Batch of 3 targets.
Target 1
Amino acid sequence: MLRELQSTLGRELSGEAARALVARISQWHRIQASPMYREAAHWLHTTLLDGGLEAELESFPTREGLLAWGEPLFQEWSCAEGWLDLLLPNGSALRLADYRAVPLSLMPRSASVDGEFELVVVHGGERPEDYAGLDVRGKIVLTRSMPMSVHRLAIERHGAVGLIFDGMRTVPELCPPGDLPDAIQYASWWWWGGETRAFGFALSPRAGAELRRRYERAHADGRTLRLRARVRSSFRDGAIETVSARIPGESAEEVLLLAHLCHPAPFANDNASGAAAAMEVARALSCLVAEGRLPRPRRTIRVLWGPEMTGTYLYLSRHEQRIPRTVAALNLDMVGADQARTGSVNVAVHTTHALPSFVGDLLEAARDTLHGEAYSFRGRSEPPLYRLASGPFSNGSDHYILGDPSVGIPAPMLIEWPDRFYHTTADTLEMVSPATLQRNMTIAATYLWIVANGGPREAAWLAGELNSRFVVRLARELQSAVTDALGGARPHGAPWEERVAFRVERHGAALASLRRLDPEFDPEPHRRAATTQAELLWAQARDLLGPWHPAERPALAPEEAALVPRRRYRGPLSLQPHLNRLPLDEREALLAAFAPARELDTISADVALFWADGTRTLGAILDLVELETDVRAPEALLAHFRLLARLGLIDLA
């Protein structure tokens, strides 16, 4: 079923052509709601039309105060000039940053400025005590902390006029401290309304270290260090564009491929690679259908490009009528990385258990036939010739909006992750591999085509795939727990009997989702077979794992556990934009009142909202979040939902 299809697709798809598209897209400084993003969108639209595709460019108004479902929008930003000079004692100047030469050396959405300012180094900047003994009012702050995390204190509370950021993310196994001394880490301002706008510049760690040395020497001599900053930028009520292409099918049902088009120059893997791959997949499928090498699909194939998150909210909120007939989607994010250079792994990210579906296992199956061909001393073999993995639900890209049960479009993600050069100016075309693009485009096109043409044969085949992969995952999970228990590890999480029952029930729901491909499909025989296998696996581990769980599980008080959250908006909720629109004193009061909410990580917070269907209590949601994420934090969960209610995003009663 897969090999013949992938052979046909592989002959038409071109990794080299896709890499050439990456080169073109990565030249634009694709900041959301900006002229250069708009240029990229118009070019993409024209390129699709020139390639014979049915394509549409849509424009959405954006300004402060507007919402796309529950997502706050923002003004359009444009910039003509931005530079930063260090004024030297001899009267000359040393240029530290220049927007024309390195666009990311100016923090996106920087406000206009023209003047001289004193420099102050702040260690951290996220806590009040970091400013003890420092006067930053009217000055520029140098910090290694992400700008939005220090904005409230440095800019709004203590009156600094701007920031210089010289931090760099580190991942010990991949990019340890000092690994990228001359790259610049992506750092951006975001303004949703009500904040004090500021300007900011970003330096490489090496340039930042030199500026810090000069600062220390100047203070030792009783001098100050002064800078000259000039930014010519503007904000206005503007527009955000999305581009879509369509390969018509025989029915009104659809399958959706999406890849975000935004991100700063010179970012190539993130996400010029995803946008370019989606272009090449759309072209190839359209060509194969037009030439009769593939039949007209049963379901329409739609491909969508827009700014990450924002574009998906805008597009879905305008086209809500398409949501019920969209069977599934796939998100392409960072799909071009050269694994040898970037250290990346090909990851298939599954959907949340709150929206169980066949799609994650289909994505894995489409990938499993592309391991490559190798030869051992005993002859031909088929080991994976690249690094690959599968992961549970995660947020951070467009798939998590689609896969929110309030939207209900199951959408896995294909991504090369982690990436040594992620969100730095070192994410250049040289880090993008035509072979990686070719492989991931073939996987994506296979996935799309099977969903677009899925019927009884595909549903029956996928039921077998789902069952076999479910049994393997459960066996590995139980054996890993047995190993930990025998090794004396401390138990954590829900009792294993509950975990197994949860996974069996969710797997049954995933099997039932195959009715989207074949309305006559009967999941029951497959569910019974999987349940029998799960019972056998659990029987082998029950004696050891049955009693192996924490003696006590923290819980909500009965009156708190009985509360039922009801969502006011479709789609996930971004908490920070809603907080930042409040006056500073009110924002700080809310943060202090709901401080425990910060202990809930973002994935667990999103999963908790996904399980809130308007009937489940907080007590039930607490248990489900633990079963899905292993996180059980009743106080933080309660504080999080109360904060959402205070912000008017949900009802809680």
Note: DSSP finds 20 helices and 21 strands in the chain.
Target 2
Amino acid sequence: MKKILLILLIFPLTSQLTVAQNLKRANHLFEKRAYLNAAEWFLNEEPKTQEVLEKLADCYYFNTKMSEAEPWYKMLLETYEANVDQTYLFRYSQALKGVNKFTEADKWYQKYLTKKQMTPAEKQETLPFFEALNSEIRKPYIVHKVSVNSTFSDFGTAYFGDKVVFASTRNSGKLYDWNNQPYLDLYKADVTSNQDLANVVPFSESINTEIHESNAVFTKDGKTMYFTRNNIPSGKKSIAKNKVNHLKIYKAQFVNNEWTNIAELPFNGNDYSVEHPALSPDEKQLYFASDMPGTIGSFDLFVADINADGTYGIPKNLGPKINTEMREQFPFVSAKNRLYFASDGHFGLGGLDIFKSEIADENFSNPTNLSDIINSNLDDFAFVIDEENEIGYFSSNREGGVGDDDIYRFTKKKIYAVHGFVMDKNSLESLPGTLISLFDKNNELVNKMIVGEDASYLFEIENNKSYKLVGSRKLYVPAEVEFSTNLKGDIDKNIQLLMELYTDVEKEIVVENGKTQIKINPIYFDFDKWNIRPDAALELNNVVNIMKKYPDMAIEIGAHTDARGSDEYNLKLSHKRAKSVMDYLISQGISENRLKSEGFGESQPLNHCTQPKMCTRAQYSINRRCEFVITN
């Protein structure tokens, strides 16, 4: 019996020690960033504490396995929402987008914004973005997968003369703990006539080693390259065991047909990563991503000057307009001095999205999302573009790929469009702020836009279709133009929309007392009455005719009295008279939603007759009136 009791006492103690050792092992693998191996240990860990759920979900999140990350983030927030850091609200939102649950993702993103304590202005800017994402940007590209994608990971293209260099795990080397794939090497490929890739070969034995090499950039003369490589401690030939090895940028020179003089850059460090080099168009600046001290988020974009003597300036953070508290990586600067980069901190479609920012005098415009033609609900990154020919490449782990990451090429889409300007027909002045709508032959709305300062519009159209353009603007007669396209390619239309003010078209519409109104002869009411007399109906029919002529016109009916009588009496009487006029117009077929009635009493006189017995009957009659002010 004593032996049995001793066994029973030892068993729970041994079990507790085993659980503690398992958790220690899982945390050790997590700190090493061997996330998939760590996930196997966290899966078996009981109970599922807040720490275990956070790290288990993160293991999958950091490998972009959103379908596996999403349920664990859900369990974490269902149990510990009040205690978790705001970052987990953001990651859960991203994971939900990764499994196409956009409505739920938006709900958690709003919770993240609230916990982040954004200002009301910041929230207002963010809220409509997702809905407006694809209506605010032209999308002139067609996306294709390249033919050389492997079942492993291929990404990070760079132009190299008439060829393309990219990173891949297609080699047969040892596996990397983070994702259990071989280490990355650089490869070179030919570019075909349609921008596809072919004839893939390893890049250079002097560059590729047993560790990671990726994300290269080359000078225009092809004699210098910058690339990313694992940080190897001094004197080591391979990755240090059980340590996190960060990334560094190296420089190499092409001498006598060999890549040589390989040296790391001076702002690398052993305790942080420096990665993803990109050159400015004049090759005097090097852009890169890093989590070095001074970053705003987990990874920021930096720039350093390349001096004429080969030295480098101090890296400068690109600032909060570009960098967020999340990740900004994979910069590329085009020949037109535009910065393209990947971010999961700027609001987008999910995972890393590709954004564009204009560079001017070392300042950056607000980043623009490249829309769902380029971006997906998973990671999209490593964008490069030849803007002169409007072609390029990017990388993505979106659904439908061959491997974990794939390279995509994009080519210019031939856009057939109707475009032009909207102007005042008489003054020929441009009319910014005008609403332009495009309708199909069934009068169904195809697209609409409010023109900007230059008053120009552009809509994509199709061949062999009939359309109608409608311009709408306050106080202007709506302008309509019908047009058709054919099967022979005659579908690029330049149409100027000319609009006229109501006052230029209808003599009964005038500007009086600062208001555009339908002017009719005075209508009269019997003393202390508000019913419409036959002579008043004849005048009101003129208003009816104009409103039927312009079905989009809306008016406010304003009834006014003179100063004789009390203020309260006059206000009530004017309300009743305005309402009677509106009821009459409705009885003649004018829709109620185009009308508004308002009684102003004696509060808006047109002359000095503001007191009883101070003016003649004729002077008082000027203030006793009914106005029909056009509001649309």
Note: Residues 417-503 form a domain with the Immunoglobulin-like fold (CATH 2.60.40.1120).
Target 3
Amino acid sequence: MAIVKMKGLRLLAMRSDREALLELLQGMGCVEIEEPNEDPKVWQGLLSQTDGVLSHPDGEALSQAREDLQAAQRALAVLKRHGDKGRGFLTPRPQLTCAQLMEGEKQGRQAVHQVLEADRHLAALEAQHGKLLTQRAALAPWLELNIPLDTPSTQEMIVQFGTVTAGVALEQVQREVEGASELAQLTQASADRDVRYCLLVCHVSAQEEVFQVLRDYGWSRMNLSGWTGTAKENDQRIAKELEENEQQTAQAEAQLGQLTELAEPIRQAADRASVNINREEGRSRLLDTEQTFLLEGWVPEENWPQLESQLKAYPCAWELRDPTEEEYPKVPVKLKNNWLTRPLSMVTEMYSLPAYNGLDPNPLMAPFFILFYGIMMADMGYGLLMMIASVVVLKKARPRAGMHNFFALLGLCGVSTFIMGAVTGGFFGDFIPQIIKLFNPESTFVWFWPPLFTPLEDTMMILVGAMALGFVQILVGMAISLVKKVRRGQVMDAVWEEITWYVVFAGLGLAILGVTKVVLIVGGIMVLAGPILTEKGFGKITGIFGSLYNHVTGYFGDILSYSRLMALMLAGSVIAQVFNTLGAIPGNVVIFIIISLLGNTLNFALNLLGCYVHDLRLQCLEYFNKFYEDGGKPFRPMKLDTNYYDVVK
């Protein structure tokens, strides 16, 4: 339950062994390769037998692996659109050895290619379908004209297809055209709300007068080049092509539906590409010489003996060192926790990992987080649902680390919720008393054990208890800060900060109990003495007022913030009881169960998220600010990183 100690590793090995060593390191998953220092002086001890010329490996394999992954993901997306349901939420990921995962590379690529080719064929058919519909729409206005669309103009006659505005009657336009010249004729093919589609036949000698008239009516020539025959003939041809296109599209979709059986090989291809990407990204951070390669990175101290025994099989040299204080910000952080505190990693990672030289907050936070969540939710029914969901998912689905931590934390909080529900007598609110009254209105049912307190009747006691728990957590945070400062030699800082206020709090308690006021007076003197002894000049005066204001308002605000424990407990209990009461009004058991089920489902969903958010706030703002140093960089070793399969040894 601590931050794992890291060792800086510099490794020199033969280029001929590079692939084998990278596979070894990836299989062990305990080395994070970082960008190396390219200064030859850093590698002076290891480069004595080489030419010292450093260069990065070729990145072509990395680009290819990324392309393979993108292609596999596109293929899976295509199959999903055409019927592949994937795996169920509770279906565990299949297990493969590394050798099995890397097998069938050719078959995997063929499967990806087959799916993508079928999808491209379908896309081409759909594009053609759209094009045919567009062509048919363009022909629709001219279907009534029994004249080929490719009828050309001659030296004596002008033939044009075009449009005029629909805002003027056709007869008026025709009269003016014929008035301009008896050698011109305007024939309407069709009309819509905006324009009239017309055919103009005009003698060359009359074109200027006729076009002058038509311009006043918005004449716009239509370009129908590329068509042959009449509009109706072309429409019939396109209709036939559309029918053929629809048949081919149906066949292509049916073919893609049959290709869903390739989903598993494609998932394996995607995982294979992910593994290759992870390894090639590590290789891209190496440095090559003519015959050797150089690796720089970090390895957990606890994993080094096993790694060292594996490296001895290769002709290589290495240098292991402890990180310096200047390197702490870039040293990766790995947390080592047990079954109880490991689920809290999702909370820590959501906030920020601790600094390498800081403290692992998980064991310090776990009891408070789990207890506070149970206090806010406080219902046996909800706790039971949380525990069942946790057990079912963890046992059946075997989720990965992130989801595993989530459901493990859900189960732990469910236990706390169930216990607090037993203490307060809540089971989906007052579900049991209400349903018993439907059968026997005279019933005065009480729990088999008397609740220690109830949210509606003991609200003030719960509020005081919540703030008392908050005060305890704040005192624990101060104690952690005190120990940390003493270990770092900051004894006086601990005296004027944590110890001073411990004395003040103890003095307040003793004064309230009427024991003595001496301790409180000593605490007050220490509050005044701190700024006087540590500040200079006018800062002594401002320091006194600043210390008093910041600490008094800070501690008061922090403690008051824990009243949310009472508020959420009360809100959840009241909402559940309101829905149960509404369901009981009709006096029908079925209606009661339906309304209660809907209401409690909504209440459970809201509280599930709300309690987590408020619990997280209490830990991150009121607790962590007493001792927590964040900013840690997560440990990301080169490993067998997969999405669809579990790689086992």
Note: The longest helix spans residues 105-139.
